[in-house]
Design goal:
Elements: H1 9-22, H2 29-36, H3 40-52, E1 57-60, E2 63-66, E3 76-83, H4 89-98, E4 102-110, E5 114-122, H5 125-137, E6 151-158, H6 161-173
Antiparallel strand pairs: 1-2, 3-6, 4-5, 4-6
Helix pairs in contact: 2-3, 4-5, 4-6
């Protein structure tokens, strides 16, 4: 886009939606802002408006992604219940991704707010390192810290059910799986 060109809000949101649909990687608010000549804050507002119109956009620790609504095909999805210390977070996530399992989200039950969830979307060790780096840089607490005893759930997905089964067995050995 030409640096001097201005889009209307509707044009910009349509451009953002198309850009996310065509991207194979998450895109940060800063990157999207540079593409459209607006600030990251404007992008955050645009994403909120798009999500309010049921656009399948998810904000992850790596940036925004468009969650294609096509079926996952033969992929297997399961919810796993875990409990561990914050120091074991990297171990937990690496166990999943080392078995070819993608961790889609984390959910906790908060005593005041009820169910809280956040997208994680980590599929490999690089994603895990980036996620942990962003937590540290933001000086943010893990969502599991907001629950009783660190109990939390992960929605995971894999090509084969055995990948999830093997990851669960290793989580159990590590004392992370809650049964």
């Amino acid at each position: 886009m030409n640096q001097n060109e201005k889009m209307t809000g509707d044009e910009r949101r349509e451009f953002l939606l198309t850009t996310l649909q065509n991207s194979n990687n998450p895109l940060t608010g800063k990157e999207l802002g540079e593409l459209t000549n607006v600030s990251r804050q404007v992008i955050v507002g645009d994403m909120t408006l798009l999500k309010a119109k049921n656009a399948p956009i998810v904000a992850t620790s790596q940036g925004y992604i468009y969650m294609d609504e096509t079926p996952e095909g033969n992929k297997f999805e399961q919810v796993i219940v875990c409990r561990h210390t914050p120091e074991q977070t990297e171990e937990e996530l690496n166990i999943f991704v080392d078995h070819g399992v993608t961790v889609k989200d984390v959910k906790v039950e908060h005593p005041v707010y009820g169910d809280l969830s956040a997208s994680i979307m980590v599929s490999n060790r690089r994603d895990v390192k980036e996620f942990l780096k962003r937590i540290e840089e933001a000086n943010a607490a893990y969502l599991s810290n907001l629950s009783d005893d660190g109990i939390h759930l992960h929605t995971v997905v894999a090509e084969r059910n055995e990948q999830i089964t093997d990851a669960v067995a290793e989580l159990k050995k590590a004392g992370i799986l809650l049964e």
